[in-house]
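Sequence of Coenzyme A pyrophosphatase (Mycobacterium gordonae).
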Amino acid sequence: MTIAYDDALRAQIQERLAAHDRSAVIDPTKRHAAVAVVLVDSEIGEDRVDPAPLDDWLDGRPLPDELLDGHMIDVAGGAAFLLCRRTSRLRTHAAQWALPGGRLDPGETVIEAALRELDEEVGVRLPESSVLGLLDDYPTRSGYVITPVVIWGGGRLDLRPAPDEVLAVYRVGLHQLQREDSPRFINIAESPRPVVQIPLGNDLIHAPTGAVLLQLRWLGLEGRHDRVDELEQPTFAWR
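Predicted 3D structure, token representation.
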């Protein structure tokens, strides 16, 4: 069942974010970044064809499962969030799933950075009044502390992805976060912490993006205050 994109959902998420005892990470050895968790409207069936050329995006990387082909199709419908497929030409974190975002510029707040990155990467300009609140900080293996900024898009929005950074942008229904097979956890030899996997479409979304999306589900949709900062990333995301 899809989730209605309406004022009731906006109020629910905003109230739950305000009531949450947010975990903030202060670590001077890490750089600070922000990601935009943008909530928009979407229509069932609008994404039956994946706009991205997967051969270019995969760039020789193996898929995580023989039953998964990497396509992000048939995920739209009702309230949704924006998910980016990054190009394989980036110097760091190429060919990965990501939320719009990046490193804070000097003097920027996390809200200012998230809104700026949303404009630069996806071509969407929104005011600070559209921000609903913040999720917990997530420290990454690659040397960042990521602050997720939850933003109400106010409709479908006209998406214009920056070709140098983003191969395609997808509207993924929030109901997809509540699939019966989600979340998944696996163990790896390199860490005692479980690696989190969020099945979406025909692929798996890993931390840090997967951890952010899991907390969006738990807190925003279900009212759970579980932490996600101890959930591990796969080793390919450590660099």
